[in-house]
Automatic annotation (TrEMBL):
SUPFAM superfamilies: Glyoxalase/Bleomycin resistance protein/Dihydroxybiphenyl dioxygenase, Protein kinase-like (PK-like). Signal peptide: none annotated. This is non-specific serine/threonine protein kinase. ATP binds at residue 80. Residues 1-33, 330-373 are annotated as: Disordered.
Length: 762
């Protein structure tokens, strides 16, 4: 519910805050003409200041005006009305928001509450009257605010959130409309306030003050789509990091006037916005036009763990140098913490010291562990393999198998007493795991061409006593469905949907079904689909789902520690989903399980695992990673380098940002899942091209390509400076090399480095 307590009210646009069950009311009930609560003066109800999902806020004028009034009985107030029959009230009781205000009374940056009570069928709260919202100011100032103003907003909002979080609550809906200034023509006119606690939640236990346990409910969203954190979009229980991520988006919006994910429409708007947020790096979002404090703040916030305490003082120290001196600051900001700067021998402090230098000297700079870039803006697809420790047994794997050869491998395995236990697809080819672990009494499989999940065949096999035990789909919607006899399951159901069907899963959980298989089909160029198979009377007593736009490592590790183990997984080119289960037997938590993520099928790792009695249990291919490392190059003529990378080397353009002098301040091109960043050289700052070093080869770049010879021919035809024609190496790769326009050496080849991302739980 969003109330703007100001004399002017502006609507943000299509975004809206949501509570479970809340809906914007076009016609609100008529409120009383005057309000009289015990111990308070009578207030005449004047014009409406704002409205929300469950109520409205009006201006209140004291019936008997006074030149001087007690601080808690002013002449003008804001009066918030909420019907006692509103869905926001629990069985007619006071609104939830009242409980929050009771717990955080006196919190920094929260307006004063003078009285609460009931009158004429309304729950009424008399509050401190405030001035315009930051949204109003942004609108008045041409939809862009200067850096000092936004830096003041950042510093004050951080201070208020620090105090609010210290009381055990998160706000849940930080945005420009919920950040207000004090009442005009008062000493507090330049102070910043946070309003609307209708979506506030406890993140700590009220009894123990410990952080609430992690949980994800993928279909539950609270907040405003434009500013909500990715974790809120994904349905994770709110924590402190979410308020800070929303604040970061708010700051960028105030500076630039827009965010990259504005404009999405349709039923999947929330999904598209969340995906865009995940695909946008801090550097891209904040750009080079704004001071680095903004991108540094966002980078650090995105790296926070679920229950990690933010470094509020460090973040405030990033922004304070940007607010100007105290006499010229547009807003009043909380005094700096009493810290003694570290002494730097042999250096006088310069006025141009960066915000990072300021924070570092205060001893408040976030540590390197927090500087890990959680979102770089580039996605990666990998193989996910889940291994389980078993008694020594025979296991066989086949990968990169085309449809014509699949039956040969499977039938050979059947003759040797092996059964299919896991399947996956990558780029139209199939991977099959067969072993002797499954106590099957029979097995049948169906490979379809262009048909995902053949319903008639599945139904026929159900009638024969078979149940789906593995499923996979390909880019062209072909599918491989494996059905087996001998399971203890008594009933089965499956659902195919373009989005992960979490609501259906919850419904089936209530009917004693559990997820036993997940498959996906399609590609980014087509409509991707999920297939989720659920069975009744499994060995599981409880399940949780972790779904993300990358491999959900944080949630997996949390649930591992609680005794859950991965029992199903699947991934599209955009998302990865992992189902974790608690088994009915008490010692199930002793199961040793490891996961491995690799760029290629993990054939080189399987034998190592087998030697430790770890066998492949599940396998999937799809979105798992946000790529982490990229070369950053400098060119005297960055525009010519950009043309060379695109026209000669075949890179795809992503983004170019120019400096005021017209040169390239930052640019990015991509090739596959790799990215090259570059900018115009600035020798005076130590950012030099090879030309500035007399052509010295201080570094080179290796690019993995598949069609190497055709790339060579195209580069040669385009005038590329080929230094070595294609040749076969002694490490199994085929390479060629050429120099870019400024003398940097580039290698192109088919070599793929060994790359693993291991996780394990013993």
């Amino acid at each position: 519910m969003t109330f703007t307590l100001s004399s002017t009210l502006a609507s943000s646009e299509e975004d809206a805050s949501h509570k479970s069950g809340a809906a914007e009311q076009d016609e609100l009930p008529t409120v009383p003409d005057r309000v009289s609560l015990g111990g308070m003066p009578i207030y005449i109800v004047d014009k409406r200041l704002g409205k929300g999902g469950f109520g409205q806020v009006c201006l209140g004028r004291r019936l008997q005006q006074r030149k001087t009034t007690p601080i808690n009985k002013p002449n003008k107030v804001a009066i918030k009305f909420e019907s006692t029959a509103s869905k926001g009230c629990n069985n007619g009781g006071p609104p939830y928001e009242w409980q929050v205000y009771n717990k955080i009374a006196g919190c920094y940056g929260i307006p004063k509450i003078y009285a609460k009570g009931t009158q004429g069928g309304f729950h009424i709260m008399i509050m401190e009257l405030l001035g315009p919202s930051v949204w109003d100011v942004w609108t008045t100032e041409g939809q862009s605010l200067p850096v000092p103003y936004v830096a003041c907003v950042a510093a004050e909002a951080l201070r208020a959130l620090q105090d609010l979080h210290g009381r055990g609550y998160v706000h849940g809906d930080i945005k420009p409309e919920n950040l207000l200034l004090g009442a005009p023509d008062t000493p507090d006119a330049t102070r910043l306030y946070m309003v609307d606690l209708g979506l506030a939640q406890r993140y700590t236990s009220s009894s123990t003050a410990r952080h609430l346990p992690y949980h994800q409910n993928p279909n539950e969203f609270r907040g405003t789509i434009r500013y909500a954190s990715v974790h809120a979009h994904l349905g994770r229980i709110a924590s402190r990091r979410d308020d800070l991520e929303s604040l970061a988006y708010t700051l960028v919006f105030l500076l630039s006037g827009c965010l990259p994910w504005q404009g999405f429409q349709g039923d999947d708007k929330g999904y598209q916005v969340c995906k865009k947020k995940m695909d946008t790096s801090a550097e891209t979002l904040c750009g080079s036009a704004w001071p680095p404090a903004f991108s540094r703040f966002l980078e650090s916030v995105l790296a926070l763990k679920y229950d990690e305490e933010p470094m509020y003082d460090a973040y405030m120290a990033l922004f304070r140098p940007l607010t100007g001196n105290s006499a010229s600051r547009p807003l009043t900001i909380f005094p700096s913490p009493e810290k003694t700067p570290r002494k730097v021998v042999g250096r006088k402090r310069a006025r141009e010291d960066s915000a990072e230098d300021t924070a570092a000297e205060l001893g408040l700079t976030p540590p390197d562990s927090q500087r890990k870039k959680a979102r770089t803006g580039w996605a990666g697809t990998q193989w996910i393999t889940v291994y389980v420790k078993r008694r020594p047994m025979k296991q066989r794997y086949h990968f990169n198998v085309n449809a014509d050869r699949l039956s040969t491998h499977v039938e050979k395995g059947y003759k040797e007493g092996l059964f299919i236990t896991a399947v996956a697809s990558c780029k139209g080819l199939w991977a099959v795991i067969m072993d002797a672990s499954a106590k099957q009494k029979g097995q049948s499989y169906k490979l379809t061409n262009g048909v995902f999940m053949p319903r008639e065949w599945i139904t026929e096999k159900w009638d024969e006593g078979y149940y789906i035990t593995a499923v996979a789909g390909s880019d062209n919607f072909s599918s491989l469905v494996v059905m087996s006899k001998g399971t203890k399951w008594t009933q089965q159901s499956y659902k195919v949907d373009s989005t992960f069907p979490y609501e259906w899963i919850k419904k089936k959980w209530r009917e004693n079904f559990h997820v036993t298989s997940i498959g996906t089909a399609g590609s980014p160029a087509t409509k991707q689909q999920w297939a989720v198979v659920m069975s009744r009377d499994t060995e599981f007593r409880h399940q949780v789902v972790e779904i993300d736009f990358q491999y959900p490592s944080e949630g997996i590790h949390y649930h591992w520690d609680k005794g859950y183990r991965i029992t199903a997984c699947g991934a599209t080119q955009h998302q990865a989903a992992v189902v974790m289960s608690l088994a009915k037997r008490s010692n199930a938590g002793d199961i040793v399980q490891e996961t491995l993520r690799t760029g290629d099928f993990p054939a080189t790792y399987v034998k190592e695992k087998w030697e430790r009695d770890l066998y492949i249990d599940l396998i999937a291919y799809g979105r798992t990673a946000i790529m982490s490392f990229y070369p950053y190059l400098y060119y005297n003529d960055a525009k010519a380098a950009k043309d060379w990378l695109i026209n000669v080397c075949g890179f795809e353009h992503n983004i170019t940002m120019e400096d005021p002098d017209g040169t390239i301040g930052h640019a990015e091109v991509k090739h596959g899942f790799g990215v090259v960043m570059f900018a115009t050289a600035k020798p005076a700052e130590g950012k030099k091209s090879p030309k500035d070093l007399g052509g010295a080869e201080t570094a080179s770049v290796y690019v993995n390509v598949k069609e190497l010879d055709s790339l060579h021919d195209r580069a040669k035809a385009a005038g590329g400076n080929i230094t070595k024609a294609p040749y076969d190496t002694d490490y199994g790769s085929r390479d060629f090399s050429m120099k870019d326009p400024e003398g940097r050496l580039w290698f192109f080849g088919t070599y793929v480095p060994r790359h693993e991302c291991p996780d394990k739980k013993e």
